Structures are given as structure tokens and as C-alpha cells.
Amino acid sequence: MPGMPNKVTEEEVDSFLERKLNLQLATIDEDGYPSIQPLWFLYDKEYGKIYISTQKTTRKAHNLSKNFDKIYFSIDDENLSYNGVKGRRVGRSENIDWSRTIIEKIIVKYLGTMDNPLAQMLLENAKKSTL
After folding, report:
1. Which of 3, 67, 74, 95 suits 34 as a labelling partner, its CA being 20 to 30 A distant?
2. Treating both helix axes as pointing N-terminal to C-terminal, what angle do 117-128 and 96-111 enclose, rounded to 10 degrees?
3. Residue 25 has what DSSP assignment?
4. C-alpha dihedral over 44, 45, 50, 54, to 10 degrees?
């Protein structure tokens, strides 16, 4: 279509997903309605996976535990040229020992260091209860 951008390359998608943007996670609540929550995320380019983390006590964790097969996400840049990645996936819960490395990488991506007091609080909260 004239004036529309060219098809994006895999490298462009990888580069976009490595940026510091929020992932909007859509789940289904107990009444069957969509619930959308922003989350920090980590993109693993080697395996083509997107990782998120949340405490088991959150609404999104409750929704995920009931409908791991009904997850939709959107990662968008609100600045011109309005790039985004959207998708539908099946979720999976991991134990905290495995997840700790992922959680630390997510924190460093968004805060830049694990020395930040917020980083320490997030990691402590994750140790208590992570999905």
C-alpha cells in the first residue's frame, strides 16, 4: 500500500522487543471479562520467548492460573511511528529458583542495577510468592 511502512525484519522485531517498554497483558477474569495489566518483561532472543513475573497474590496471577491458555499481550511504542508487537500465547508457571535469574534480568533491564532499593524490594517480594 503506498505510504505504508515496509514489512519488518526479524532483526527489527528483536531490537524492538529488547527496548524498555511495558507489556500489556490481557487475561480473562472470573466473570469472563478481559483484564489488562501492564508488566515489565524480558525478551529472550535466543529462544524467541517473552518472560514476565508477578506475585501469586495478584489479580493477574489469579486470572492466569485459571486460564493459562487464554493470554493475549501487546507491546507498543506510543511514539511515532507507533510500532508494536501483539500475540496470543499459552502461559506457564515456574518455580522461584528457576525464575530468580529471569526476575533479576527484568529488574536490571528497567532499573539498570540490582543495587536500587526498589530492585531489592521487588526481588524480596518475588522470593515470597512468584508465578
Report:
1. 95
2. 160
3. E
4. 20
User: What stretch of H or E contains 37?
Assistant: strand 34-39
pLDDT in tens, 116-126: 889 988 888 77
Find out whether 1 and 19 touch, Cβ atoms under 8 Å.
no
Confidence band for 4, pLDDT divided at 50, 70 and 90 = low
Strand, helix or coil for residue 16:
helix
Cα atoms in the Cβ-side hemisphere of radius 13 Å centred on 104? 9
- Between CA 26 and CA 49 the distance in angstroms is 17
Angle at 101 between CA 99 and CA 104, to 5 degrees: 105
Superfamily holding 10-128: Electron Transport, Fmn-binding Protein; Chain A (2.30.110.10)
The C-alpha atoms of residue 111 and residue 105 are separated, in whole angstroms, by: 10
Nearest Cα residue to 36 out of 18, 63, 15, 12: 63
Could you tell me the three cell numbers for 29?
Answer: 477474569
